[in-house]
Structure formats: structure tokens, C-alpha cells
Amino acid sequence: MSRKRRLLIVEDEAPIRHGLVDVFVYHGYAVDAESDGREGFLRARSGRYDLVVLDVMLPGMDGFAICEALREHDREQPIIMLTARTAEEDIINGLRLGADDYVAKPFSVQALVLRVEAVLRRVHGADAGARHIALGAGDSIDCANLTGTVAGHAVSFTRRETEMLQYLDRHADRAVTRDELLHEVWGYARHALLETRTVDIHIAKLRRKIEHDPAQPARLVTVRGAGYRLLRAD
Q1: What's the rounded Cα separation, in Å, for the pair 233 and 139?
Q2: CA distance 6 to 30
Q3: Cα–Cα distances in Å, from 49 out to 116, 154, 183?
Q4: Is the pLDDT of residue 97 over 90?
Q5: What is the predicted pLDDT for the residue at 75?
Q6: Is the peptide bond before 106 cis (omega within 30 degrees of 0)?
Q7: What is the DSSP code (8-state) at residue 56?
Q8: From the centroid of its chain, how far is CA 211?
């Protein structure tokens, strides 16, 4: 018998927390929950969970601080953040700190279930791709170790960032659309109707890491009306 996937839900609003526990247990997950941010962080850093669902506004330790601390401890821990729909800065900040995805409140439970399934499908079934990507000018990325060197400086990456680069690298001969990245890297079903800026924010993060001038990208470029391409110097 296969092991149940383990989820940790860190949410201080009791009706939401209890409802999510019931829903994910119904879908076959083993679920733990915390209402306090600090207690949630201590549980999350144990490494026992396949995925952490993390609210932004929490007592004791907010979701941003938890996400940042988890990424320092484990850059591969899957994290989905719950944010207020009107707080665009929450979404940008959460993804910048390393969250794999976000779901805006108020949300449909089914939408969150689909996001969780997509992240776990990606984690357990993604093609590893190239272990090493040469960017030219002595710059390179070690995908296996989530590190790289750009302009003589060490750079760290999240697993999701290297997966994006690996996919773009495998298809470097053409532009890759935003929807294709959502389907192939994030793992969302092709029929899913998605409203998310996740790809755009991750592209901006990657440009800050691999471009010498992020304002004028020469490596991770936008092809107007078509998508994104990863260009590498010969």
C-alpha cells in the first residue's frame, strides 16, 4: 500500500482550518494543522510533510517569515501560500521568498485541492532535465545542487526555479508560453482555468538572478506574443 501524502495546514481562522483538514482527509491525505505561526514553523521544519499550506496572516510568526525560514532550512520543501485577494504585494512577496504557488482568499476548496495535487505531481514526477546549464561568460547553474555562479558571485535557486530553467533549456529553440510553463512545470491539467501571476513573478525573480542587467534581459527574454526563451551564449 502506498504511503499517504502528508500535509501541514497553518491557518489561524478555525472554520477555514477545520474545513481544509476535513477536505484533504476526504481526499486521502494525512493532515496536521496549526493555528500559531511559530508552532507551524517548528512542525514544518521537521521535514515530515510533502507540502505545507501556509496562511500569510498568523499569530506568533507570519507566513512570510515562516516561508523565508523554511527556504533557508530546506530549499525543496513544497509550499503553497494563502493570501488576501486584494493584497498584490502579498502574492509577489510570497513567491519572492520561495513559495511554489499561492491561492488568493476567498478561494474555492476545489481550486486549492487542484493546486496541491499539481505541486505534488510536479515534485514526484517531473523530468529531472539537465543537471548543468551553461549561460555563457563563465556563468552557469548547477541544477542538482540548486546553486550557480553569475558574474563571479554565488547564487542560490529554489527547486521550482531550476525546473523552469531546465524546461526552457530543453526547448531553447523556441518560445515557451506562459500556459505551457503552468502545465509542464507547475503540473496543472491542461483543461484547468487558471488566473495566476506565478509564472510572471518567477520570471522576474530569475532575471534578477541570472541577468547582468535584469532591466534589459539578454538571457531570459520575452518573445512578444509568444512567451519566453532562454538564450545561451555559445
Answers
A1: 10
A2: 5
A3: 13, 29, 24
A4: no
A5: 79
A6: yes
A7: S
A8: 20
Model confidence pLDDT, tens digit, residues 30-47: 999 999 999 999 999 988
Q: How far apart are CA 137 and CA 158, in angstroms?
A: 23
pLDDT the model gives residue 141: 93
Using the 8-state DSSP alphabet, how is residue 4 labeled? Answer: P
Q: Which of 84, 103, 125 is the last residue of a domain?
A: 125
Please report where in the chains the cell 483538514 appears, as a residue.
Answer: 21
Write the pLDDT tens digit of every residue in 128-169: 566 889 898 889 999 888 899 999 999 999 888 998 999 999
Q: Is the pLDDT of residue 65 over 80?
A: yes
C-alpha cell at 31: 493532515
Q: Say if residue 104 is in the same domain as residue 10.
A: yes
Closest alpha carbon to 193 in 108, 92, 123: 108
- Residues 112 and 205 occupy one common structural domain: no
Distance between CA atoms of 94 and 68, rounded to whole angstroms? 9
Of 125, 152, 187, which residue constitutes the final position of a domain? Answer: 125
Q: Residue 116 and residue 28: Cα distance in Å, rounded? A: 12
Render 197-226 in DSSP notation, one character per residue.
Answer: -HHHHHHHHHHHHH-SSTTS-SSEEEETTT
Check whether 2 has a pLDDT greater than 70: no
C-alpha 94/C-alpha 132 separation (Å) is: 27
